[in-house]
Design goal:
2 copies of one chain form a homodimer.
Chain A: H1 2-22, E1 25-31, H2 37-48, E2 54-60, H3 65-71, E3 76-81, H4 90-97, E4 107-111, E5 128-134, H5 141-144, H6 146-151, E6 154-158, H7 170-180, E7 185-188, H8 197-210
Parallel strand pairs in A: 1-4, 1-5, 2-3, 2-4, 5-6, 6-7
Helix pairs in contact in A: 1-4, 2-8
């Protein structure tokens, strides 16, 4: 395991250097299956188009369903299928990037495999990570899956419109997140209602320019 | 990876033999973080108590939150903390079982780590697997994460009460599940409304007696 992570870190360092040379900022977007990563991405891209030159890498075990959704927005997208693998690694990203014109991009968004555990363990050379946690998953998740929340610059509490139908306690989740990671930025979004997206996108825009 | 799985399979075979000798049936309960495994388990145990002698093994990366919930029901429970590990393996189950009186049990329920990928790859010596998929995760999940659905004797479509607030298509999910695994048994449950639980529990009761 140490060897695998060591080899991955080396390629991730190469990726990071290459991204910096090309002047592209890379976000690693993570979260459970069905937390709403792709839908958040669709809404985010709609707001970013015209402001930033963006491309997307979609990570899934199988199918090109997510890449097809991004492609419909007219945004360049590459689908990686891990064929059962539970996370993206730096080598997969390196290979996918060989077919992208990174110099022509401001922001590259990598949507990782739906998994609250393994993706957080593998550096892909990104500038920063973001984790999406949907309200329906429960407010106990930060303490039960701490690494991904410790590693992420921001946590997006998504599907906030479903709050009245769950026992999710936003105050308690925010307190746990802040305990795990005092500087984490927390957003509350609903992609079906369109709420909270302006704050989230403004933050991302600034990260893309300043990173 | 082959070596790890080979070593695991050996211990799983030992576990399976030991469970058979003790006359205990073992269910491996899997699903994404927040799909509602523990809540389903609470409701299930409430129905099984008095009909079967049941114990539970709870798998989590960190915390004993889930075991505490089961303990409150007066059911014997052992918490395994994987300390970051993304799945339970056969050796963890072997070790946990050493502290259980298996001869005095009819059914042992193992709630795996919240993860739609890795737990399906590791045999723990169970008699059968069950996967919980919550409506809010989306109907595209069976095709995107096929292994876990191919491996499971039953799929529980949970949080069915939230159906009106999502774009989940039950017919499409059922069709995909049946394509992946023609004999899979499908249940629709709501643990907050208490719907669908009688059918699910009746099936489980029969599996526990006949396996």
């Amino acid at each position: 395991m140490k060897n695998i992570l060591g080899a991955n870190d080396e390629i991730a360092a190469h990726n990071r250097e290459h991204f910096a040379k090309c002047g592209v900022v890379v976000m690693n977007l993570m979260g459970s299956p069905g937390s709403g990563k792709t839908t958040l991405l669709e809404q985010t891209l709609a707001q970013l188009v015209g402001k930033l030159r963006v491309a997307v890498i979609e990570g899934d075990l199988f199918t090109a369903k997510d890449a097809e959704r991004i492609d419909r927005l007219g945004v360049d997208v590459i689908q990686i299928n891990t064929a059962g693998g539970c996370h993206l690694d730096a080598a997969m990203i390196q290979k996918a990037c060989a077919t992208l014109d990174l110099d022509a991009l401001d922001l590259l968004i990598v949507e990782n495999v739906g998994n609250l555990v393994c993706p957080a363990e593998f550096d892909i050379g990104e500038n920063f990570k973001v984790v999406v946690l949907s309200i329906t998953e429960g407010d106990d998740k930060p303490l039960k899956y701490p690494l991904i929340f410790k590693e992420s610059a921001a946590a997006v509490l998504n599907k906030i419109d479903l709050l009245p139908f769950t026992n999710f306690n936003v105050q308690s989740a925010r307190a746990d997140l802040s305990t795990l990671h005092p500087t984490i930025k927390i957003f509350e979004t609903s992609c079906t209602r369109g709420t909270g997206l302006d704050d989230w996108t403004a933050w991302l825009l600034e990260k893309a320019v300043r990173s």
